[in-house]
Design goal:
alpha/beta; 10 helices; Rossmann fold; Hypothetical Protein, Haloacid Dehalogenase-like Hydrolase, Chain: A, domain 2; about 30% helix
Length: about 260
């Protein structure tokens, strides 16, 4: 029996216009009535997610910043910060890569040095609490991840500079333009494992949805693993099921089919 549902946001739950599925709130209420926990599992900042789900934020679970910060019913239950010195070394390296800008993602805020319009538009989309600073290396905050916005594509450009650290750090493609660097073993999969252990929920009772490579470990920790029809091929290859695209409300459609249509 499904007890936990976790979905990625961009390219998965949200359509290409950054909108929720039209039937989401009715779906959420029925899940809530059945005691099924709904979670947003995203590379987005917690404050951004809480803002998007403002009306129900204290009734759901958030796996934010690619699994490094987890909040349930308004209370932090888990975090996995990145060592400050390592984070600063990654920033120094990233500054040398052409066609990139950097976000230092802290518990309290996101910090950045660039005011480039395309970059700022991306910040406004994913980070509700943000600060322009003169030097990222002076930031005082618990660091969750270093995010690199790559104007020409992270897989083709910046990934090659950081893949050497993948044995000790979590180096993840969060989207076509995003590369995320986190503490070793920090990802959506390890976060949902912690949630499952805390709430006594098995992988067999868990349903997850994703579309990109930062969802890879998430797929590995749920029996009901759904790749969106628009997902990266590596996600399709590891998922057991496929949902319709994000523009066809694939998440809520699958929830209707596999959960809400079933009776105990």
């Amino acid at each position: 029996m499904i007890k936990l549902i976790a979905t990625d946001m961009d390219g998965t739950f949200l359509n290409d216009q950054n909108q929720f599925p039209e039937d989401f709130y009715s779906v959420f209420r029925e899940l809530n009535e059945r005691g099924i926990i709904f979670a947003a599992a995203s590379g987005r900042q917690y404050y951004n997610l809480a803002e998007r789900f403002n009306d129900i934020k204290d009734e759901m679970l958030f796996i934010a910043e690619n699994g490094t910060y987890v909040v349930y019913k308004g209370e932090e239950i888990f975090s996995q910060p990145l060592d400050r010195e390592i984070a600063f070394e990654m920033i120094k390296m990233a500054r040398e890569i052409e066609n990139t800008d950097i976000v230092l993602c802290g518990k309290q805020s996101a910090y950045f040095e660039s005011s480039h319009k395309e970059f700022q538009d991306q910040l406004d989309k994913y980070y509700t609490k943000q600060q322009l600073v003169d030097d990222l290396l002076t930031v005082e905050d618990d660091i969750l991840k270093v995010a690199i916005y790559d104007y020409v594509g992270a897989e083709q450009n910046s990934l090659s500079f950081f893949s050497q650290f993948s044995n000790n750090l979590q180096v993840t493609l969060g989207g076509y333009n995003w590369l995320d660097i986190m503490s070793g073993g920090a990802n959506k999969g390890s976060a949902i494992q912690n949630v499952q252990k805390l709430l006594n929920i098995s992988a067999n009772d868990t349903m997850v949805f994703g579309d990109y490579l930062n969802d890879f470990e998430l797929m590995q920790n749920a029996y009901y693993s759904f790749a969106m029809a628009n997902a990266h091929n590596r996600i399709k290859n590891i998922a057991r099921f496929e949902a319709k695209t994000n523009n066809e409300a694939g998440v809520t459609q699958a929830i209707h089919q596999y959960v809400l249509s079933k009776r105990d």
